[in-house]
Amino acid sequence: MEVVEDIYKRRQPMPSMDAIYFIQPTKENVTMFLNDMSGRSPLYKRAFVFFSSSVTRELINLIKTDGTVLPRIGALSEMNLEYFAIDSQGFTTDHERALEDLFGDNAEISQAHNACIHTIATRIATVFASLREFPYVRYRAAKSSLDASTMTTLRDLIPTKLAAAVWHCLARYKTTIPDFPQTETCELLIVDRSIDQIAPIIHEWTYDAMCHDLLNMEGNKYVQEVPSKTGTASEKKEVLLEDHDPIWLELRYAHIADASERLHEKMTNFVSRNKAAQIHHSSRDGGELSTRDLQKMVQALPQYSEQIDKLSLHVEIAGKINKVIRESGLRELGQLEQGLVFGDAGTKDLINFLRTKMDVAPENKLRLLMIYAALYPEKFESDKGEKLLQLARLSSDDVNAVHNMRYLTLPESKKPSGGFSLKFDVHKKKHAARKDRNDEEETWQLSRFYPIIVELIEKLCKGELPKNEYQCMNDPSPSFHATPSRGPAILRGAHKLSSKLKREIILGSTSLDDPAQFITKLKLLSVEDISWTTSRSDLFLPKILWLSKPGLAPVEYSY
Predict the structure, then answer these.
(1) Diameter over CA atoms, the chain
(2) This prediction's pTM
(3) Which of 245, 251, 291, 382 could make an S-S bridge to 259, C-beta 3.0–4.6 Å?
């Protein structure tokens, strides 16, 4: 018998059972564990205790002071597993409040700011403990360290402080974790949202991004409608889009138009290769197979059920996405978004769009204006920005989101006053935040956009990342970049770049947000007394234990 329980809830005593505790090394959690196992009547026979990260000597001494508990401890170990794996190349530290704690209106005076950085650093460090990798720690340097005329702000120092905290944890691992590397094996690059305010907002046109942006999915969970067994009404079935699905693996990073074409080819090829499917298809006078036709095929051809199930799932998803694109006019909106980012469009184009496209959804107008605010923050310091907001007819809540983009803007160096330049460049684009990447051939429309981190990763791997702008806690020797390391770097765009650069790339983030979630968090940056269901940083993994059969032997974990 196995039971999973929360140590902060009242539990039934099971003195004949052994318990496995997996807890964060906090005083509260250790106190609860001691309460469970001390005295004449402990809750369990023996306790095998595994901490999610490094435990302090103070907490070890606290455990040692209770003489009744020590004989009942079967194992006491640091697991260093304080993160959530998203897939084979991504993880989060599960900090849903990071944006507020680090960039919010009250960040300068809030104690949560430093506590958040410390916890994020601890959890990032446990990733390297798991991988048995010791990185060079690179980070975006504060603007004030590059230019004395730039005012130092708390937000500007976030990557510097986080890098120092991560380095402190890693240095301790060198002496406390067996077989932990003593010399650098990989590179870690720490950046914050200020380097790219546009990526979380703009419409990205890959299949994966469109699924999460347009279909209101909960994580990777999609609700599919399938025919009922009785053949009357349809039933709802929850499916996960994950690595076990070969079609998802193949299409997730493809442009939505490319993904739709490939699905059509797969469907056509399946019908052409299977006589039974041809018979079923011919009964429809050779017309296009719909999702419902495919689902009915599953019942008619049970030997192909798994194959058709996956195909019908993705045909349905792609169909829904393309319907939203058509009905929302997303192609024209996407062209303007990318035009603004790449400097092909400007303020006049935005004004014309807002005046002529009155039926555009409020959330899409909001995202458009947030992109504009990231490109032209100075416009919103005058009445020009306010006039645009009035033209867009945004709600006060949405206006707040646009104004809050300022919290993610880095301080600018003071520009020298006086004088003017007579140099003109007639070919220069408007205010461009991206340059077209000539090294990649883009077949599909609206596939120009790329996150800034992609560029940073490539420069890092080539040894071209400016050392003054992206400094190193453990400064590498000049010969280090001569032969690019094969170890992992913690960055974004992981899957595509791993293939291109022939190097393992791992993306880490405080949280994984779709555009709607990011915008919600941004709106809250200037709101006081925010109520969250989980407000303590020590609620990450914490208070769970497994009860196992009597006589459990200590388990060896490799990580």
Answers:
(1) 88
(2) 0.82
(3) 251
- Give the separation between CA 433 and CA 344, rounded to whole angstroms: 11
Buried b (16+ CB within 10 A) or exposed e, 454-482: bbbbbebbeeebeeeebbbbeeeeeeebe
pLDDT for the residue 446: 85
Considering just the CA atoms, what is the radius of gyration of the chain in Å? Answer: 27
Q: Where are the alpha helices (DSSP H) in 149-214?
A: 158-176, 207-214
Cβ-in-10-Å burial (0-12, 13-18, 19+) of 357 comes to middle
CA distance from start to end of the chain? 26
Structural element, H or E, at residue 490: strand 489-490
Helix 291-300 and helix 275-282, axial crossing angle in degrees, nearest 10: 130
> How crowded is the C-beta side of 440, counted as CA atoms within 13 Å?
15
Residues of 188-213 as b/e, b for ≥16 C-beta within 10 angstroms?
Answer: bbbbbbbbbbbbbbbbbbbbbbbbbb
Chain segment 213-226, per-residue pLDDT in tens: 999 898 889 998 87
**Domains along the chain with CATH numbers:** 18-78 (3.40.50.2060), 83-196+452-525 (3.40.50.1910), 207-282+292-328 (3.90.830.10), 330-408 (no CATH)
pLDDT 10s digits, 161-190:
999 999 999 999 999 898 999 999 999 999
Buried b (16+ CB within 10 A) or exposed e, 35-62: ebbeeeebbbbbbbbbbbbbbeeebeee
Write the CB contacts of 538 (distance below 8 Å, at least 6 apart in sequence). Answer: 24, 26, 28, 29
Specify the residue for token string 């380097």: 195
Give the span between the Cα atoms of 209 and 170, in whole angstroms: 34
Phi/psi class of residue 419: alpha, beta or left (left: φ > 0; alpha: ψ in -120 to 50)?
left
